[in-house]
Design a protein that fits this description.
This protein is of the alpha/beta class. The protein folds into two domains: 277 residues, Zn peptidases (Aminopeptidase), CATH 3.40.630.10; 125 residues, 2-Layer Sandwich (Alpha-Beta Plaits). 32% of the residues lie in helices and 21% in strands. It has a six-stranded mixed β-sheet with strand order 1-2-6-3-7-15, with helices on both faces. Helix 7 packs across helix 9. The radius of gyration is 23 Å and the shape is elongated. The two termini are 18 Å apart. The mean pLDDT is 94.
Length: 410
């Protein structure tokens, strides 16, 4: 390992930027919606082969809960000078959410157009732009002859947008990394802390009746709203009890939200059933079991006007733990110093969005999230990432990696 000056890194990222931005644009043109990552994994495998990386396609284990599991795979690639040393991981997901709302797009969502200093299209922010930044950083370092005192693994995974099966599968058979950089969009701000989440569905029963005599029935939707009110009270208490300086700009670090609601089957009938699905936030260090217990207690305490009806039923879906890496940890300090050099200040924030970083954090791996693009612009029409941000993120990542050493990560 030898120190590289920021200008040396910048010269090389600029040299290779256009090729990596073209790779980004081409990756967007391959609509790798969750379940169809095999549309893009070959593109990355070809890139690694062209650059002398040892890379392999690792099929997902067959799973009854995963669509097309047998056709899907992760891509695992190793820095060309692999020596059996402690491993620093760069992790990114290949899957994207469906485009939908195509009439709201100014361009077709999978055109992958480069225009006006932007790469346009679904996945450009979340998170193929982050993958491009990571690969650009490593290309620049390889070009400069960087010889890290650790091994570097790039994990390009499937299924992050659904169940996290890709990263979970890799971690089961992977040595514990010394550190992990997850390349989600953070607007080039360092994320050393993230709250988790627990997805849920609540089913409530009622009793149907003709709407000309609604008093003869029990409105399941009304019962559902009472459960929702109890859960809102719980969420407010939980939010007030958890404060963290990196979440000072948001009303709560552990948000509660309902995403879908359904009730009844006919407009002239009192609803006999109602359902809502959503998420409740999880504090760093808090178990999913503890959150579920509080949730169930709040549901049970919701007022019920007819004890003869079944109690509300709660079903649990995907859950992610919260995590935090101390800001004085060598990984965070290296990122902070690099960001200050490249962008003028070491900015930090907390994440309320779920990501695969949760799996590294839960395993005790020092973890940070960092990448180009604003996460608020992901998952919607006209998703795009600024090319300058992709390059800036690569500069920060490359410089940070040169400032890490194996001993500092122990």
């Amino acid at each position: 390992m030898f120190p590289l000056a920021p200008d040396e890194i910048r010269d090389r990222t600029v040299t290779h930027a256009d090729a990596l931005l073209e790779l980004l644009a081409e990756s967007v043109r391959r609509p790798s919606e969750s379940g169809w990552e095999d549309r893009v994994d070959g593109l990355y495998l070809d890139w690694f082969a062209e650059h002398g990386w040892q890379a392999e396609r690792l099929p997902l284990a067959a799973s009854a809960t995963e669509n097309r599991a047998e056709e899907r795979a992760n891509v695992l690639a190793w820095w060309p000078r692999r020596r059996g040393r402690p491993v620093v991981v760069l992790n990114g997901h290949m899957d994207v959410v469906p485009a939908r709302q195509e009439d709201g797009w100014s361009r077709p969502p999978y055109d992958g157009v480069r225009a006006d200093g932007l790469v346009h299209g679904r996945g450009s922010i979340d998170m193929k732009g982050g993958i491009a930044s990571g690969l650009l950083a490593l290309t620049a370092l390889a070009d400069a002859g960087f010889d890290p005192p650790f091994d570097i693994a790039v994990q390009l995974v499937a299924g992050e947008e659904t169940t996290g099966i890709g990263t979970r599968t890799l971690l089961e058979g992977f040595p514990r990394p010394a550190a992990a950089l997850v390349l989600e969009p953070t607007d080039c701000v360092i994320v050393p802390v993230s709250t988790g989440l627990q997805f849920f569905t609540v089913d409530v029963a009622g009793r149907s009746a003709h709407t000309s005599a609604p008093w003869r029935g029990v409105d399941a939707f009304d019962r559902l709203l009472r459960v929702r009110a109890a859960l809102l009270d719980l969420a407010e208490r939980r939010g007030a009890a958890y404060r963290h300086p990196l979440f000072a700009d948001v009303p709560t670090a552990i948000p509660f939200a309902i995403g879908t609601v359904t009730a009844g089957h006919w407009r002239a009938a009192v609803p006999a059933s109602a359902t809502m699905s959503g998420r409740i936030g999880v504090r760093p260090g808090e178990s999913l079991e503890a959150v579920r217990a509080e949730f169930l207690a709040a549901v049970a305490a919701a007022p019920a006007d007819d004890p003869s009806l079944p109690a509300p039923e709660v079903r649990w879906d995907h859950g992610l733990l919260g995590w935090e890496t101390a800001q004085d940890h060598p990984l965070i300090k290296a990122l902070a110093a690099a960001r200050e050099t490249v962008l003028g200040e070491p900015r930090f924030t907390g994440f309320t969005a779920g990501s695969d970083a949760a799996y590294f954090g839960a395993a005790g791996v020092p973890t940070a999230v960092f990448g180009p693009g604003q996460v608020s612009r992901a998952h919607g029409p006209d998703e795009s990432v600024a090319e300058a941000d992709v390059v800036a993120a690569a500069d920060v990542l490359a410089l940070a990696l040169t400032r890490l050493d194996t001993e500092s990560l122990r």
